[in-house]
Write a structure and sequence with these properties.
Number of strands: 9
Structural class: alpha+beta
Strand content: 15-25%
Distance between the termini: 75 Å
Oligomer: single chain
Largest sheet: 5 strands, antiparallel
Strand order of the largest sheet: 6-3-2-1-9
Radius of gyration: 52 Å
Helix content: 25-40%
């Protein structure tokens, strides 16, 4: 794009505003027809100033307003023929030596430039004031704006996090499974809240081709109930006690038998218990903290 002077830019702005006279408009339209870059400047000004047209709708004046306008310009009654005064006789002044000619072209050019920029500044200020008014209306009373310029409502999602409450420790029960008061073979731990249990292998020696199986024996039950095969690792965890009530769990005898590999095939023990033990409370439940 070729560089343009401030006069060119001001001329384009006044053309967009519609404040040029006929000669100046013809000049701008000629420049637009031969210079696409200058035409783009005019289009840019028209885009900037078109905001005012969106805010102001057309209003048809009332009939009485037109009557007042006609009276003001003297058209309410038939006009009297215009009589021109007689021209005075022409007096030819004496010829004098030509005075020094002052070049006023710069003054005229600067005056026109100042007028253009003054007009542009005035309309730019009006646009800024209109935009400030639109922003204020959009914030406080958006319903007054047209649908095309009305801001879209914003939805803000607020996440409320509840402070984490520390879980109250539950009671813990432990049974030492051993043979005839000997050294512990297994240690059984039961959580009082979840009823999950863990079996830790301590001194039991595995037998080839056999599996250790844990049983729950209670007077409330007609026969021993299998709690599953104890795995080959150091710890075996099971959640199978959840179907029994607390009294049955706490008063039962827990026994370990030696079964075929994989455990009893029919849910009944096939050998006498090798290791037995009963639960005792190792950790009592924590008392609830006082309300604040």
């Amino acid at each position: 794009m070729m560089p343009y002077s401030e006069d060119h830019i001001a001329l384009a702005a006044e053309y967009a505003l519609g404040t040029l006279d006929a000669d100046e408009r013809a000049q701008v339209e000629t420049m637009m027809s031969v210079d696409k870059d200058f035409a783009a400047i005019v289009d840019a000004w028209e885009d900037k100033l078109s905001v005012l047209n969106q805010m102001v709708g057309s209003v048809e004046p009332r009939a009485e307003v037109w009557d007042k306008i006609k009276e003001a310009v003297g058209h309410s009654e038939p006009q009297v023929p215009l009589v021109l005064p007689q021209a005075p006789p022409v007096v030819v002044p004496a010829v004098k030596e030509p005075a020094e000619v002052v070049d006023t072209s710069n003054v005229i050019r600067l005056s026109a430039q100042a007028r253009r920029w003054r007009n542009v500044a005035s309309f730019t200020t009006a646009i800024a004031a209109a935009l400030v008014a639109m922003i204020a209306v959009g914030v406080y009373q958006p319903d007054l704006l047209p649908d095309g310029v009305r801001p879209k409502p914003r939805v803000q999602v607020v996440e409320v996090r509840t402070p984490a409450v520390a879980a109250t420790p539950s009671a813990q029960y432990v049974a030492v499974l051993q043979k005839d008061g000997g050294s512990p073979a297994f240690i059984l731990t039961v959580d009082g809240a979840t009823k999950n249990f863990t079996v830790r292998k301590v001194g039991a020696a595995p037998e080839p081709g056999k599996s250790f199986e844990l049983w729950l024996i209670s007077d409330k039950l007609q026969r021993p109930r299998s709690l599953g095969v104890i795995g080959g690792g150091d710890f075996t965890a099971r959640p199978v006690l959840s179907s029994y009530d607390n009294d049955t769990i706490n008063t039962a005898t827990y026994a370990v038998t030696v079964e075929q590999a994989g455990g009893s095939p029919d849910g009944n023990p096939h050998s006498a218990p090798v290791f037995t033990g009963k639960l005792i409370e190792a950790v009592p439940p924590a008392a609830p903290s006082p309300a604040r």
